[in-house]
Amino acid sequence: MMQTGDLIMVRNSEDRQGRTKVTAVTNRLIWMEAPSEADTLKTFILSEDESIHVYFFKEKGRLYGFESEIVERQNDPLRGQRYAIRRPTDQQVERVQRRQFVRVPLLLDVALHPHKTKFEPFTTVSLDLSAGGILILANHLPIELKDEVELTFLLPAEHGGTHTLDVLGELVRVDRREERYELAFQFTQIHDRSRELVLRHCYQAQMKNSRSGTNSFT
């Protein structure tokens, strides 16, 4: 399941979310470094007996999660603060389904290129994004449902700049909007790191939306 060195994401009872790394795995416990918030990179403190939710990627980028709790806290002179959580059974680990991914409105530059179907490459913008897919706006309809294309889009980085993501996506829905089309793609091939970046970006945006009274879960 999880191994030393794996990157994981944790969310505590106060909805603070951070990224951390597994430092050791035993039959009973999983040890991890103090989590750092994705937007500020600042570590935050977890309390003993505090309930948390853990997310991790395995098997071709599939996202899994489980509930656990902090059972021990140590201040390691070499590694700093670290925490032990209860190791879950296989039955307690659940795959996070695509429909559970956070989808947020997001305007991004997107380029489409042929994969197996021939058409003239074109650039456009996205309307929303999740770790499972993307919705784009198009002036014409050069492909058909179930066609697979190459999608390249620029995702804002945490401290300025952008990440360039290259994925494969299957066209799963077409909606006519007057003289334009909304094309919904489901990602069929995406690197683990890219999916993690998208998921983290969408969760950050959703938490901001939650604080402002809106909800972006689909």
UniProtKB/TrEMBL annotation:
The organism sits in which domain of life?
Answer: Bacteria
InterPro entries this protein is in? PilZ_domain (IPR009875), T3SS_YcgR_PilZN (IPR009926)
Looking at the record, the residues that make up the PilZ domain are 97-204
**GO terms for MF:** cyclic-di-GMP binding
Residues of the Type III secretion system flagellar brake protein YcgR PilZN domain: 12-79
One family name in Pfam for this protein: PilZ
The name under which this protein is listed is: Pilus assembly protein PilZ
Origin species: Exiguobacterium oxidotolerans
